[in-house]
Write a structure and sequence with these properties.
Helices cover 80% and strands 0% of the residues. It has 262 residues and is mainly alpha-helical. The radius of gyration is 24 Å and the shape is flat.
């Protein structure tokens, strides 16, 4: 009899583990499929990432170099990895949702799903901002340090390495994408009651300092990138305060309805 009770207690856990394994396999297979497709188009994807730099350089004399035999190959591998992670994220998040959703109440599903949808949208918005607005300004700033040379001096010309350029580009895309997730993070904290709208408003001055420190750490040492990251995050911080107030109003209305029902 004890063995039967023990088996009944173990089965739900085993079922959860089997479900988790299945979701992980689906997510991994989706990622690997996207990786091989992205690796096939890695040259074109890297060309897309290089376009903002090429637009600022003299195309007749501009070039990119690699100094190790394996450098270009591993750069394309990294390009495929980042592209696959970005493209497969909806599938991975869907698998997370399918694993978590059965254990949630209806109102919890309605609360969690918008944040799950907003996460990739905001990350993409941050990446688009840095690609179309920050890259042209930042690359123009850095290229201005080239000199033509003259009597008694040698010209200074830039010859970017493919791996260093990719690292810089992905660092900026990651910084902007992560920064744009601030509303999701703060509004989740507001929903569970860890932070309040009034508390966020009172700590605005500390948030401003923290945002500029965050921008200084995750971006290159140029004012354009740092301000270009800090200003949108501060605007999103204000959006988070508004969102937190809306969450609090809905919570108060729901609590009042429950009290009336009782």
């Amino acid at each position: 009899m004890a063995e039967i009770v023990e088996d009944e207690k173990r089965m739900p856990l085993l079922e959860h583990l089997v479900e988790l394994r299945m979701r992980l396999i689906y997510a991994l297979c989706g990622f690997m499929f996207c990786f091989f497709i992205a690796f096939y188009f890695a040259d074109s994807i890297f060309g897309f990432l290089v376009e903002p730099l090429a637009a600022q350089m003299d195309r007749a004399n501009a070039r990119m170099i690699y100094t190790a035999l394996h450098e270009a190959f591993f750069t394309y591998v990294k390009v495929a990895f980042f592209a696959a992670a970005f493209v497969s994220f909806p599938l991975i998040s869907a698998q997370i949702w399918l694993f978590v959703a059965p254990g949630l109440y209806k109102h919890e599903k309605g609360a969690f799903l918008p944040f799950l949808i907003a996460t990739p949208v905001l990350f993409f918005a941050g990446g688009a901002l840095v690609y179309y607005f920050i890259f042209p300004l930042a690359w123009e700033f850095f290229l201005n340090f080239q000199t033509a040379g003259g009597p008694g001096s040698l010209p200074i010309q830039v010859e970017p390495k493919v791996d260093q350029y990719l690292s810089l580009v992905m660092q900026l895309i990651f910084a902007f994408g992560l920064g744009f997730e601030l509303p999701v993070f703060l509004m989740l904290l507001a929903r569970v009651g860890i932070v309040t709208a009034d508390g966020l408003a009172e700590k605005r001055r500390y948030a401003i300092v923290g945002v500029f420190v965050f921008a200084a750490v995750l971006t290159p040492p140029d004012v354009i990138s740092q301000i270009g990251l800090a200003v949108p995050i501060l605007l999103l911080y204000e959006v988070s305060i508004v969102g937190a107030r809306m969450i609090e109003k809905k919570r108060a209305a729901r609590q009042a309805a429950e009290d009336e029902a009782v």
